[in-house]
Amino acid sequence: MSHHHHDAPLRSSNRDLQEIEKKMDRRRFLTKTSLGIGSLALGSLLGMEKILAGNQPTALLGESSNGLKGLPHFIPKAKRIIYLFQSGGPSQLDLFDYKPKLVDLHGQELPDSVRDGQRLTGMSADQSSFPLTASAFNFRQYGQSRAWVSELMPHTAGIVDELCFIKSMQTGQINHDPAITFFQTGHQLPGRPSMGAWLSYGLGSDNQNLPAFIVLVSKNAVQDQPLYARLWGNGFLPSQYQGIQFRSGKDPVLFLGNPEHYDGKDRREMLDYLKSLNEVQLDTYGDPEISARIAQYEMAFKMQTSVPEVTDMSKEPDWVYELYGEDSRDPGTYAANCLLARKLIENDVKFVQLYHQGWDQHGNLPGGIKNQCRKTDQATAALIKDLKQRGLLEDTLVVWGGEFGRTVYSQGTLSEDNYGRDHHPRCFTNWMCGAGVKPGFTYGETDDFGYNVVKDPVHVHDMQATILHLFGIDHEKLTYKHQGRRFRLTDVEGHVVKGILT
Amino acid sequence: MTQDLITFIGRFHPVWVHLPIGFLIIAVLFKGNAVLGKKSALDEAVSFALLLGAISAFIAAVLGFLLSQSGGYEGKLLDIHLAAGWITVLLGGIAWWVNKNEQRFSKTLNYSVLGLLILALTITGHFGGSLTHGEDYLTAYVPFGKNQGESQRILSSVEEAELYADLIQPIFKSKCESCHRSGKAKGELMLISFESLLKGGENGPVIIPANPEKSELIRRVTLLPDHEDFMPAEGKKPLTEEEIQLITWWIEKGKADPKFTLMAADEALIAWAIPRLKIQGTELIQAIGIDSIQIQQLEKKGFRVRILSPQSGALDVVLPEEMAKSQASELLKALLPIKENVYWLSMAGTGIKDSDLTLISQFSNLRRLRIENNPISDDGIAALKNLTQLEVLNLNGTRISPTGLGPLAEIKSLRSLYLWNTAVNPQDEWVLKMNSDKVKVVFGS
C-alpha cells in the first residue's frame, strides 16, 4: 500500500481484477452508448486503457472451458447426449401413436368438440372438410413392454424395450421455424443459446481436443424445410459454446486442412505469435470475443489432428456397417452420421446433434414417410444397440423426435391410398433412451382421435428441463444475464418429468 | 484535557473488571464449600471476599462510567451493561451485609442473594464482552448454529451473489465491525449494513458512488499504516490489497449499488469471486480435501476429472486410452489420495492388469467402473467384490471366464454387467441366474 494512494489513480495489481475492470468497462461502455449516454463510460474506458497498458492477460478462458463452478447441481445420470432431430414433424399417427378407433371413423369429419376452436395453419384452415384419417400402416406390439410400432419402423420395433416413448409431447408453435427454434433454444424467436450451447457453457468439455457440441446434418434427406446454424448457435453466450458442424466428404470441418504446398510445420509458432497479437488487442479492448477467438484458433489447431482421427472409419469392421445399414459406408448419410455420433460419444463429446430433414408430409404422406423411415430406421436402432453393447447407454442419453406432430385429419383430399397431414402442435410422440430414463416405458396418452393429450402432457420446456436434470442441472439455476435479465433454456417454465426417470 | 484524563482513567476499566469478578466468585465458591463440606474456616472468609468484591465492583463501575463518557460507546448494550454493573455492586454490598450478619437472616435469603449476585455478574460480564468484541462474538461459532462462524449467507448458486452483501459486507464484518457497529460506533460510523455505510460518520459520507478517489473510506484504508487516520486503527488487521480493490471497484463501476449482482458484471469476475462466496456444496468439497490444484495435477498426468456433484465431492475420472501410454498401473496410484471421491471410473483400453484391480477395489464409493478391453482375468476381477456400491461394471473384451463370475454375485448393488466379447456365453447358467429385473447382463446385439 503506497502513501498518498488516494491521490493517485486507483489501479489494480491483481490480474483477474484487471480483466474484470476492462470487461466491465467495455460492457458498460456499450450499454451506455447504446442508451445514448456513452461519454461517461468512454472517459473511464480511455483512462483505464492507459493504466492497464503492458499487462499480461490471464487465461480466463481455460477456466470457462471446464464449465461453471458449482455445477452439476447434483449427481448426473447422463454424461453425453445424442439428439436425433427428425426435422419437419414426423407423423406420430403413422409411427407410434396407434389409434385403432380411427379405422371405423376413417373419412368422417373431425368433431368440433375435439378441435375445440383450435386455429389451424393457413395451409389447411380453408379446407371445407377435415376427414379423419387412419394410418395406412399396420401396427403391432413389440417386446416385453408391448409398445405399439407401425410396420414403417421394423428396426425400431426391435429395440422398444430400451425406449421411453412420450406420447404426450406438446408445443406452442405451429410452424417449422418457430417450432424447431423453440425445441433447440427454448424460445420461438431466434437469439437464444441452443441446448448444446447451454450444456457446454454449464458443464464444459470432457475432451479438450474436440468441441463439446458437434452437429451432423444428413445429406440424404429431402430438404423440405431449412435448417439454420442458429439452431446450434451460442446466442448471447460466448461464441466458443456454439455447435460445430461436421460435414460429409473430404473436409468434415471447413477450412481445417492446410493449404496446398504448406506442410504445417511452423503452424504452432504462427499460432503462438497470432495469439500474442490477439492478446495485445484483448489487453486494449477487453472484448470477450477476442478470448473466444483465441480459444477457437487453439481448438481448430487441435482439431487438425483430432477430427481426421475421429472421422476415420477405416478401422470399423464390416459387421458395424451391416448393423447400421449399407448407407453407413457413405459419409454424410443419416446412417453414417449415427455411426460417427457413436465414435464422437466414445471420445466423450458431450452433445452430438443430428438433423434429418424431410418429415414434412403435407401431401403424399404414405410414400414420403416410407422413404424417411427407410433412411433412418435401421441406423437409429443400430445406434441404440451399439451404444448398449458397449455400455455407453449407461451414461448417454438419446432423444428422437421432431418439432411437432401431424393432424389426424387429412390435409388435401383423402383418397383410397393417399393422404397428407398438416402441422399439429397439440400432441406428438418423441422417445428418449439411455442414461436415467425408464427403458421399455410409455408416458402420456392422447385421446382416441390422436388430437388432444388426455394424460400427463409434456411441454417442450418440460423435456428440456428433464434433459438438463439428467445432466445434474437444475434448469432454473443455469442462467445467464443478458440485456438486464437472467435467461435460461426453459425461459420461465418447465417441469422435470419425474415419471420417466429411473 | 479533562476529557483526555477521563479517557485515560476510563481505559483501566477493562483490566479492573476482572478483580470484582474474581473476588465475588471466590466468595460464592467459599460459601458453597463451607455449606457442602462443613469447612467453617472458609465460611469466615466469605464476607471478607464479598467486601473486597463489592468495593472493587464499585471502582470498576466508576471506571466503566468514565470509559462510556469517552465516546464511541452507546446504545442498548451499553445501557444494559451499565445497569447490570450497578446492580452487581448493590448486590455485592447486600451480600456482604447479609453474610456479615448471617445469624440475623434466613439461609434462604442468604443463598438467594448470592445466586442473584452471580446472575448479575454474569449478565454484566456478557454485555461487557459483547460491547468489546461484538454482539455475536460468543455465539458465532456455536457448533449447532445455523451459520457457523460467519454471517456470510449461503447461496444456492452464483447467480444470487451480490457484490455488496456477499463480498464486501463480509470484509467489513471481519475487519471493521468490531469498532464500527451499534453500541460502539467509533467516529459515529457504523459498517453493519448498507444503510449505515451510506449514512457515513461524524465527518459526513464515507463513500461517494462512482468516485472512489473522493471516498473517505478508501482514503483511510489506503494510507500508510502509521498514519494517524489509517484504518483499521490500533494495529488491527489491515485490509488486503484485493479487498481494497474490490471495494474500490464496486464504488467506481458498481456505483455503490447494493443490488449490483455478480452476474451483472462478467464471467471473469464470477470466477474470481467464487472462492470468496459460500455457495451451497462448494464448502463440502473443500471439507473432504479436494481442491482444484489436486485436480489440475491429475489432469496433467493425463486424467480427465469431472466433478459429478460438488455437494458430495463425487468425481468422474477417465483415463483416455491414448493418455495411458502403458503407464496405467503407475497412473492409477495417483488416484489413491482421492479414492473415496471417485464415483465413476473409466480405465477402458488403458492396459491395466489384474494386480491393478486390487487397487481399484479400495475405491469404496465407486458406482460405475469401465475396465473393458484390458488384459484382466478372473484372478483380478474377484477383488472387485469389495466394491459394495458398484452399480455398473463393464468387462467387455476382458479375459473373464464363466468360472470367474462367481464373486460378482456378491455385489448386491450391481444392476448392469457388460460381458460382450468375452468367453462368457449368454446361455451360461450363472448368467441366466443373475439376469433378473434387478440385474441386466448385456452381451453383443
Mean pLDDT of chain B: 84
Structural class of chain B: alpha/beta
Radius of gyration of chain B: 34 Å
Instruction: Assign an overall shape of chain A.
Output: globular
Distance between the termini of chain A: 58 Å
CATH classification, class level of the largest domain in chain A: Alpha Beta
Largest interface: A-B, 55 and 66 residues
Give the helix/strand layout:
The complex is a heterodimer of chains A (502) and B (445).
Chain A: H1 15-34, H2 38-52, H3 60-64, E1 80-86, H4 92-95, H5 101-105, H6 112-115, E2 139-142, E3 147-150, H7 154-157, E4 163-170, H8 176-185, H9 195-203, E5 213-217, E6 244-246, H10 267-285, H11 288-311, H12 318-324, H13 334-346, E7 351-356, H14 365-389, E8 396-401, E9 405-410, E10 421-424, E11 428-434, E12 441-443, E13 445-446, E14 453-455, E15 458-459, H15 460-470, E16 480-482, E17 485-487
Helix pairs in contact in A: 1-2, 10-11, 13-14
Chain B: H1 2-10, H2 13-16, H3 18-37, H4 40-69, H5 76-100, H6 107-133, H7 163-175, E1 180-181, E2 184-185, H8 194-199, H9 216-222, H10 241-252, H11 267-273, H12 282-287, H13 292-301, E3 304-309, E4 314-318, H14 321-324, H15 328-333, E5 342-346, H16 354-360, E6 368-370, H17 378-381, E7 392-394, E8 416-418, H18 429-434, E9 440-442
Parallel strand pairs in B: 4-5, 5-6, 6-7, 7-8, 8-9
Antiparallel strand pairs in B: 1-2, 3-4
Helix pairs in contact in B: 1-4, 3-4, 3-6, 4-5, 5-6, 7-10
